[in-house]
C-alpha cells in the first residue's frame, strides 16, 4: 500500500533498486556479456560460473541493470506504459467519456456525423439552463418536505455538467483532425506554389527562346534584302545593247530628212 502511494506521489523518491547501479556491478554486466555464448540468451546463462573469478558477484540477475526494451511495449495491440501509477498510451489517444466512466451522448465511431448530436446537446443545455433559472426563482422548500429529496436546481446543475463534458470531449476529439487538415492544406498550398513557380520559369525560358528565334529571323531577312539590293544595282549598271542605240539614231536622221523634204 505504501509503494502504491509512493508511485502516485507527485515527487516520488528514487526507486529502491537504484543502489544496484554501482560501477562494480556494471563492470560485471559487461564481463558477463563478453563471456556469454553468442547463441544463448544472457538471461539464461549461469552468471556465477562465468564470473567465478570475480569478487562480490550478486545473487540477483545482472540483467536487471540493462535498459528496458521498448520493442516489447510496441508489440502490444495498444502499447502503453505506467508512470507514477498512471497509464499512458504510446500513441497519443484521448480516452472517450465512456472509457472514463462518464455518460457519453454522442457516437464514438469517427465515420458518423456528430453535428446533429452536438446540436441536440446544445439545445438541451439551453433548455436546462432555462429550467435552472426557473428553479432558482422558486420558493425554498418547507420544513415538512423530505430532506432526502435532491433539490431541482442541483439536478439541473448536474445535467448541465454532463452536457458540458460531452461538448468539450467532442471538441477535443475534433481538434487533432483540424490540425491535420490545416497541415494537409498547407502542404497542398506549398505544392501548388512550387508548381506555379516551375510553370513561370518554363514560360520565361520559352519566351527567351522565341526572342532568339525572332532575332535570328530578322537577321536572315536583313541579309536577304541586302543581297537583293546589290543584285538590282548590278543589273542597272550593265551597258545597253548597240542595236537599240543605232536604231534610235537612224530614226532621228530619218525624221530630219523628212522635215527637209517637206520644206
TrEMBL record:
Compartment(s): Nucleus
Biological processes annotated in GO: regulation of transcription by RNA polymerase II
Key word Transcription present: yes
Region (Disordered): 225-252
GO molecular function, one term: transcription coregulator activity
Regions of compositional bias (Polar residues) in chain numbering: 225-249
Nucleus found in the keyword field: yes
Main location: nucleus
One Gene Ontology term, aspect cellular component: core mediator complex
Keywords for this protein: Activator, Nucleus, Transcription, Transcription regulation
InterPro entries membership: Med7/Med21-like, Mediatior_Med7, Mediatior_Med7_sf
Protein function: Component of the Mediator complex, a coactivator involved in the regulated transcription of nearly all RNA polymerase II-dependent genes. Mediator functions as a bridge to convey information from gene-specific regulatory proteins to the basal RNA polymerase II transcription machinery.
Protein family membership: Belongs to the Mediator complex subunit 7 family.
Subunit structure: Component of the Mediator complex.
Identification of the protein by name: Mediator of RNA polymerase II transcription subunit 7
Organism: Dendrothele bispora (strain CBS 962.96)
Amino acid at each position: 500500500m505504501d509503494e502504491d502511494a509512493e508511485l502516485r506521489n507527485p515527487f516520488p523518491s528514487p526507486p529502491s533498486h537504484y543502489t544496484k547501479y554501482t560501477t562494480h556491478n556494471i563492470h560485471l554486466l559487461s564481463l558477463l556479456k563478453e563471456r556469454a555464448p553468442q547463441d544463448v540468451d544472457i538471461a539464461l546463462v549461469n552468471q556465477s560460473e562465468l564470473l567465478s573469478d570475480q569478487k562480490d558477484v550478486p545473487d540477483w540477475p545482472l540483467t536487471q541493470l540493462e535498459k528496458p526494451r521498448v520493442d516489447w511495449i510496441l508489440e502490444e495491440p495498444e502499447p502503453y506504459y505506467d508512470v507514477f501509477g498512471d497509464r499512458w498510451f504510446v500513441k497519443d489517444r484521448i480516452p472517450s467519456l465512456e472509457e472514463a466512466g462518464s455518460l457519453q451522448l454522442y457516437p464514438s465511431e469517427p465515420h458518423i456525423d456528430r453535428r446533429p448530436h452536438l446540436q441536440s446537446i446544445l439545445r438541451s443545455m439551453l433548455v436546462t439552463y432555462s429550467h435552472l433559472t426557473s428553479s432558482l426563482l422558486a420558493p425554498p422548500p418547507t420544513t415538512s418536505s423530505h430532506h432526502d429529496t435532491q433539490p431541482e436546481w442541483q439536478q439541473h446543475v448536474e445535467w448541465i455538467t454532463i452536457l458540458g463534458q460531452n461538448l468539450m470531449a467532442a471538441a477535443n476529439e475534433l481538434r487533432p483532425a483540424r490540425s491535420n487538415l490545416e497541415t494537409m492544406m498547407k502542404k497542398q498550398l506549398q505544392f501548388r506554389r512550387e508548381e506555379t513557380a516551375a510553370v513561370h520559369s518554363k514560360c520565361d525560358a520559352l519566351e527567351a527562346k522565341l526572342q532568339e528565334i525572332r532575332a535570328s529571323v530578322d537577321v536572315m531577312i536583313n541579309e536577304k534584302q541586302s543581297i537583293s539590293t546589290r543584285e538590282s544595282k548590278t543589273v542597272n549598271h550593265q551597258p545597253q545593247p548597240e542595236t537599240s542605240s543605232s536604231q534610235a539614231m537612224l530614226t532621228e536622221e530619218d525624221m530630219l530628212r523628212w522635215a527637209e523634204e517637206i520644206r
